[in-house]
Amino acid sequence: MASLLVGLVAFATPASAAPIDDQFQAWLAKDLWPEAKAKGISKATFDAAFDGVSPNLKLPDLVLPGEKPKTPKKQHQAEFGSPGNYFAEKTLGTVTAGGRTRAGTNAKTLAAIEKRFGVPAGVVLAIWGRESGFGAAKMPYDAFEVLGTKAFLATRKDMFRKELLAGLEMVERGLVSRKAMRSSWAGALGQPQFLPTSFLQHAVDFDGDGRADVWNSTPDTLASIANYLVHYGWVKGRDWGFEVTLPDNVSCALEGPDQGKKIADWAAMGITRVGGKPFPPNEARAEGFLMMPAGRNGPAFIVTPNFYVLKEYNESDVYALFIGHGADRIASSDRRFAGSWGKVDGLYRSDIASMQRGLEKLGYDVGGADGLPGFKTRRSIGDWQAKNGRAATCFPDKSVVEAMR
Model pTM? Predict the structure, then answer.
């Protein structure tokens, strides 16, 4: 999912728009239309979808004909920037205060959703608030312009082609009008910011009017968010995670969903919940995972499998943490993290990609040299730092980048 609260950024526009438009029209007619027709899309639906549509070359992550994909120099998505910036109180407070207000006005619906799906009210409210400002955010783009451009020119053409065909299916089946197909810059639709395949798989009619309407119906929107999470494995009765204090002798390189331990075993290593409360007994017996989105430069967490379900909504540790933390605040009070977000070096995405390639040459699995410091990159940095006599921070900085050049 692509959060609209991240902000929209203008990107440089190539000058060769006219020839690319010609190629786009040829691609629609000779490549996309035969497949759409085979999938049951009528010519009327297809023509209406692309009437007046041309490639939007201001969208990010495009590869123009004859060019090769490149790692962008700058990072435009806040989910992957300096972790602490993502939790600005202005943004977080807006979501949590708005969530508490709507928890009251939608209490009956939320109780019914939690009974049916097992997802707490705070979680669905936090996602609703983060994704579309509780439905207030305007969708600035024509969805077929975005999906068509990305299916033709994006670095992930195949994924967007699938989404484009799903969008055509939505209109063909009368699930949404052509006019209502407005989206974010990533092609996400409606109040939950679903991509078309997610709408087809997870949208729910919860208000009983006979159609799943994630554009105008609050019950449908909230139930669809919960249904999405259940599909990806939400475990009823478990929390998303806990902020913890990590002793100096516990390596930050133990982070990751593939290095789980019983939470009681983490506690036996000296890891404690902030605030002094013990882990709940049912959680202590179950598996948990160390998660440190800023390495030693920020708060530490023991998270549950539900944290990684939240990541299915947006493949970002800080996004999932925002939702979990926001849900806690909606349910209780505006309690901030106990740990502080330290200052991190202002690196370009291309710098981090270069560092990742250097770590790969040393045999580390960084999860791909994409310039995004996910858990595999963070723990690889920590392991390399420890082996080279450095303090293990598990987060990219200028010294590591220089050492990998």
Answer: 0.91
309, two tokens: 């379900």
Residues in the chain: 405
Tokens 């783009």 — which residue? 141
Residue 359's alpha-carbon distances to 159, 290, 362, 381, 396, in angstroms, are: 28, 22, 5, 8, 11
Q: What is the pLDDT of residue 4?
A: 46
CA distance 77 to 131: 14
Rounded Cα distance between 232 and 51, Å, is 36
The answer to whether residues 341 and 269 touch, using CB atoms and an 8 Å cutoff, is no
Instruction: Compute the distance between CA of residue 82 and CA of residue 77 in angstroms, rounded to an integer.
Output: 10
Q: What is the pLDDT of residues 28-87, one digit of tens each?
A: 999 999 999 999 999 999 999 999 999 999 998 899 887 877 656 555 454 445 788 899
Tokens, residue 188: 């996400």
Token couple for 133:
């400002």
Tokens of 276: 């002094």
CA dist 131 and 54 (Å) reads 27
Calculate the alpha carbon distances from 312 to 63, 102, 115 in Å.
Answer: 26, 24, 22
Q: Tokens 């205060």 sit at which residue?
A: 97
